[in-house]
Amino acid sequence: MYLMKLLLVEDDKFFREFYSTKLKEKGIEVVTAENGEEGLTQLQSFTPDIVLLDIIMPKKDGFDVLTEMGKMQLLPQIPVLVFSTLGQEKDVEKARLLGARGYVNKSFFDFDKLYSRIIELSKK
Amino acid sequence: MVIMPFTQDDQVKYKALYLQTARQYVTNLQANLTKLSGGETKDIIDTLHRDSHSLKGQSLMMGYQAVGSLALLMENIFRAKTEKTLDLTTEIITELSAGVKEIGLCLDEIDKNNKELDLNSNIEKLKSLTKVS
To answer: Is some CB atom of chain A closer than 8 A to the CB atom of B53?
Structure first.
């Protein structure tokens, strides 16, 4: 029995496997997509409780996904946390303006903080 | 840079995955830098940017600051290129290739001895050539 269902849209295999494993250990069901296009396809087949979204990806980046989710009117019901890394402050701001509810800095790893943020956002 | 690296357990558990994916990025970066000599395309530059970005992120997360720092600089160089504030001269491409090769050697050192090489001279040369930080 899972706490919630999360869609992880991330092109990097390392981060995809790491976050999937860690989140599953916490009782979260994780569905993954390797790029923005796959992520949008997944969103047509199920409604996740929350989306973790990388920004820089091939085949539709995080901005494209947020824009499409906005057009599909998914953003009010599905919170999106974007992944960022060092040096991406402008990208994070752009993502916020497109409707992301917050961001997680992948470079400064704190899984407990991420998990708390996921729980907090998914309840709203 | 303030880094909060993994626990020791996570570091051991994910080191093999890190080395596998990081080495793939090194291979891809080398291949795409070689392709640049045949002519730049948006696709090649975008891929170079994405790969250096990903290599940076996972290296910093694993606590490998030297690789992370050099990959960050490369990411910023490719970003400057996409934003048309930098031209990739032959000299810059040569230095980028040298940097990628050093990252590969650094990964070997991490694999064998669990420590990084000093990549500062590659970083300083690239900064000096490109004026990117």
So the answer is: yes
